[in-house]
Write a structure and sequence with these properties.
The chain is α+β, with helices and mostly antiparallel strands. It is built from 18 helices and 12 strands. The protein has a 5-stranded antiparallel β-sheet, with no helix packed on it.
Length: 486
């Protein structure tokens, strides 16, 4: 059981966003510099923070939670909000948006033909999940994965988001940085590059190297890797960790070191700043830096035209984008009773308390990321939830076969039998079972069945198949679209 003192929690959440805003503004002018950076403080005019997509996307995710409720939020829904309200066309953002507009379902939108899936777009936007699920590493990691996979699939960018989200959610209670790093690493596979890079940064620190020596080692590692290079997650998260380790709890020194490492400096500084804010609250934020930046949030990546239409279409209560860190904190505090419902986390006016068993639960690969298919998507339905996995990707040739695996999570004891029917392009055929007995809601692993799709001579660039699922003794019918590309 976790008990949070409301005022203390509010202070940490506010410090998170303030640290994010300060770090993004400090590092923003130096972004994309490949060498080390000469940074001794702000180079922008006093009183106006810089806009930062690191923050913008998180405002849209908060909007999705507000409008839809946390139970409906998954990669597919976040992709819908992305397409509607987020504008940037570059890097993984642009690849994901182009894939989604072609009909490719998240998280496959982040996996298919995406040379940027190892980049930085996702780990920089994890604070919203940590703040909505403070001290609940399992849920923060879950939503960070759903979020990151929209534009990073199963790439290193997704592992980076899971690592950072785990640290941030745990940081509401754990003030030891080395322990937080261990918690983050325990939630990603040891085989991924993120694990290797962060472990190397810690090793350099433990061996008494300078921050510059550690930075150069990580830089050399990424430049020698044909899959990575500049602006990729493993090294840049490593630079943020270098700032945090060698900064040794000093807010200014931490952000300056992170910035001096170069590359994606607005991201590394912003994440380091937000983590320190969560760990220590507003007492760690230097007053002069706070006064220099102020409280305002300046956006750059939001589709203002669509948002204006959204605000004026009808008179119902809408989610309005927060304009300050204070307003953003207030919105999160109001949503917390919903996100924390049934999570054994209580908001109180008394003392903050947490059990040792809860802290022990922060560790562990809760998502089993290494067991997930590279090409798969999930649907949330009334009676059952489904995961559709493609064997070998989403492309097919004329007169060929494609195996589709359907994993079923039954949510009701009364659902005993499911029947399957495929709606296929002309001349295509399918082999697989027509009916399937479903286990109880407690069955693990979830039951699955396989289908072999056989294409015909004519294969279009875009082929939409429909799996129709009906149930014995229930009125519900599920229609699951399955896209194959020619």
């Amino acid at each position: 059981m976790i008990r949070f003192n409301k005022d203390e929690l509010c202070d940490k959440i506010y410090a998170c966003w303030l640290g994010k805003n300060i770090g993004g503004t400090l590092g923003g002018p130096f972004e994309c510099i490949k060498g080390t950076v000469e940074c001794d403080g702000f180079v922008i005019e006093k009183g106006k923070p810089l806009p930062n997509d690191d923050l913008d996307l998180q405002l849209v995710w908060l909007m999705a939670i507000h409008e839809e409720g946390p139970q409906r939020v998954n990669a597919s829904l976040l992709g819908t909000y992305w397409d509607e309200y987020i504008t940037p066309p570059w890097g993984e953002y642009g690849v994901a948006k182009g894939n989604m507009r072609f009909g490719i379902t998240p998280p496959i939108s982040g996996q298919y033909m995406n040379e940027w899936k190892h980049s930085n777009g996702a780990w920089i936007r994890t604070e919203v999940w940590a703040c909505l699920y403070p001290g609940d590493v399992e849920m923060a990691v879950h939503y960070a994965f759903e979020d990151a996979s929209v534009d990073h699939g199963m790439g290193e960018g997704t592992y980076a988001a899971v690592f950072v989200a785990a640290m941030e959610a745990a940081a509401f209670f754990v003030n030891n940085l080395q322990e937080l790093i261990t918690i983050g690493l325990s939630n990603i596979p040891k085989e991924c590059k993120m694990y290797t890079y962060i472990s190397k940064a810690v090793e350099c620190y433990d061996n008494g190297m300078t921050w510059l020596e550690a930075r150069n080692i990580l830089t050399d590692m990424t430049l020698q890797d044909p899959e990575l290079g500049w602006m990729q997650a493993p090294a840049n998260v490593g630079y943020a960790i270098i700032g945090l380790l060698w900064g040794e709890g000093d807010f200014k020194e931490t952000l300056l070191i992170a910035c001096r490492c170069g590359d994606d400096t607005d991201c590394t500084c912003a994440t380091a700043g937000s983590l320190l804010g969560i760990m220590h609250g507003t007492r760690i934020i230097p007053r002069d830096w706070h006064e220099y930046i102020g409280d305002e949030i300046v956006t750059i990546s939001l589709n203002e035209g669509n948002l204006r239409s959204y605000y004026t279409i009808d008179k119902k209560t809408h989610f309005h984008m927060p304009k300050t860190c204070t307003e953003l904190t207030d919105k999160i505090m109001k949503i917390l009773p919903v996100t924390l419902y049934k999570r054994e986390i209580e908001l109180t006016s008394g003392e903050t308390q947490i059990g040792e068993d809860v802290i022990a639960s922060f560790y562990g690969q809760k998502l089993s990321l290494h067991d997930r298919a590279e090409y798969a998507f999930e649907t949330i339905s009334d009676l059952c939830d489904y995961r559709v996995e493609y064997d070998g990707g989403i492309e097919v040739l004329p007169n060929s076969e494609k195996k589709i695996i359907v994993v079923i999570h039954n949510k009701f004891l009364s659902v005993k039998l499911a029947s399957f029917e495929w709606i296929l392009p002309e001349g295509w055929t399918v082999e697989g079972r027509k009916n399937m007995k479903l286990g109880g809601t407690w069955v693990r692993p979830w039951p699955q069945t396989e289908f072999v799709i056989r294409t015909a001579e004519n294969v279009a660039p875009k082929n939409m198949l429909i799996l129709k699922v009906t149930y014995e003794s229930h009125h519900n019918t599920e229609l699951i679209p399955v896209l194959l590309l020619g």
